[in-house]
Amino acid sequence: MTEDKAAAYTTLYTVLTTLSKVIAPYTPFMAEMMYRNLVPQFYPEAPESVHLCRFPAADESYIDHDLEQGMEDVLDVVALGRAARNAGNLKNRQPPSEMLVASNRPLDMDEELIAVALDELNVKKMTFVQDGASLVRYVLKPQLRTLGPKYGKKLKAITAFLATCDGAEVVSAVRGGGSYAVELDGETVVLLEEDLQIFTESAAGYSAAAGGGITVALDTRLSEELLDEGCERELVSKVQTMRKEAGFEVTDRIRVYFTAEGRAKRMLEKGDFAADVLAESVQEGSADGFTRTLDVNGDKVTLTLVKVM
After folding, report:
1. pLDDT tens-digit profile of 129-146?
2. Do the Cβ atoms of 99 and 121 come closer than 8 Å?
3. How much is the pTM?
4. Looking at 188, 222, 256, which one is the last position of a domain?
5. Containing domain of residue 9, as a range?
6. Is the distance from CB of 303 to CB of 284 less than 8 angstroms?
């Protein structure tokens, strides 16, 4: 067992045993069942019932504020990364080569947290850059239904201002209930988020999303190697889904037979993913087994799974 797995199992065990004690006053029978399944058989010296245990006390020394802040930053980056994926029509299993991140505040992300973000977004590399404006540009237009009643005579001046202003500055000011004031023709015009139609344009070769002072841009230029990897991941997902549909056990070993076209055929012929799906072989042809005809990134593929007895 790897160190990471051991740590994960230990954490889960601690959470479940503590939870059984916390819920004992409210759901006594469920708590007792959890506790007796988890504790007495492994720790004979422990109380035989959860109702004989002391109620858990909070230990604030376990709180890692730096880690919590780092995870908040990871969540912000991942949320924007997903938005950028959607905007660029990049499938989740297709890895881009790089993600550029710009922020107007320090991000508390060490190498481990960066690895978490990259794994969550299926991206090869993260690079921090200084200028978010070079990654995404805001295009602002007036929302006539709100600005009309307030500044009807100044709509032309407002439209001209929005066409030439610093879009990022305006958007940053109005986000989250804020406002942006500007002097137009001797009168102060106050713009709210509801007064604007906000559009974004990504830099060439990138798909970007911005929010909360952070800009994330995914490189949409895909090499043949990246396209191959995306196709292989799609095939792994299809085979794993078929295993479940066929009712195979998690540990069952299989043989995979296929007929395919295009890139999918080439990746199936290589069969490098066999170990990921517990396949003893991946070979072209047909057999009696669980069969599905699928679309894999535009390629027609017929897969047959046969359980190894």
Report:
1. 987 777 888 889 999 999
2. yes
3. 0.75
4. 222
5. 3-57
6. no
